[in-house]
Specification:
0% strand, 10 helices, 2 domains, elongated, 56% helix, Endonuclease Iii, domain 2, mainly alpha, Endonuclease III, domain 1, 219 residues
Length: 219
């Protein structure tokens, strides 16, 4: 994709949604960290349902430790892999209290040292909570980057590094959310909705899909 086309692509996505935000519900950096960790192999909607009551009771690592692993499981049992996630959340809370004074560190290495926190989760927290210009490559971003030709790569890390390189500085703050939301609602996995895509002219995907034909019922 040409440099000028990339700029226009992000410009159009930004016009459609100037201040994009994560669709995960949270109240502070710690609850964001928990929500993102829970969202692995789960939907944002499912995680939000599970954390609604949890985050009314728990907003700090100390409160999470007071709740305990079994108490946490009671809140998140509808989320996939909840047993493993509960163990990781409790262990992470212990580390945050012992090593970071109960605060979420603004540091990738420190975040990735926490149980259940990988590069993607760290990037989301750094971007959403602290305004860092990080790009967390999930399945949506990986698909859109490869399908459109924006930042092709064989691995999430390769796509992330390419996006870091090609994304114009003006758009790096929100690039993660724009591409993710575009993939979630327009450039869908099975059938991308090219007919209502604002950046289709820059996209390498062929053939473009057409709007479904609606048949009138006989009256």
């Amino acid at each position: 994709m040409k440099k000028a086309d990339i700029y226009e692509l992000f410009h159009r996505l930004s016009e459609n949604n100037p201040e994009p935000e994560t669709e995960l519900n949270y109240v502070n950096p710690y609850t964001l960290l928990v929500a993102v960790a829970l969202s692995a192999q789960a939907t944002d909607i499912g995680v939000n349902k599970a954390t609604k009551a949890l985050f009314e009771q728990v907003t700090t690592p100390e409160e999470m430790l007071a709740l305990g692993e079994e108490g946490l499981k009671g809140h998140i049992k509808t989320v996939g892999l909840f047993n493993t996630k509960a163990k990781n959340v409790i262990k992470a809370a212990e580390m945050l209290v012992a090593e970071h004074g109960g605060e979420v560190p603004r540091d990738r290495e420190a975040l990735e040292s926490l149980p259940g926190v990988g590069r993607k989760t760290a990037n989301v927290v750094l971007n959403e909570a602290f305004g860092e210009h990080t790009i967390a490559v999930d399945t949506h971003i990986f698909r859109v980057s490869n399908r459109t030709g924006l930042a092709p790569g064989k691995t999430p890390l390769a796509v992330e590094q390419k996006l870091e390189k090609v994304t114009p500085a003006d758009f790096k703050r929100h690039a993660h959310h724009w591409i993710l939301l575009h993939g979630r609602y327009i450039c869908k996995a099975r059938t991308p909705e090219c007919w209502r895509c604002s950046v289709a002219e820059f996209c390498a995907f062929k053939p473009k899909t057409s709007a479904p034909v609606r048949h009138r019922e006989n009256t």
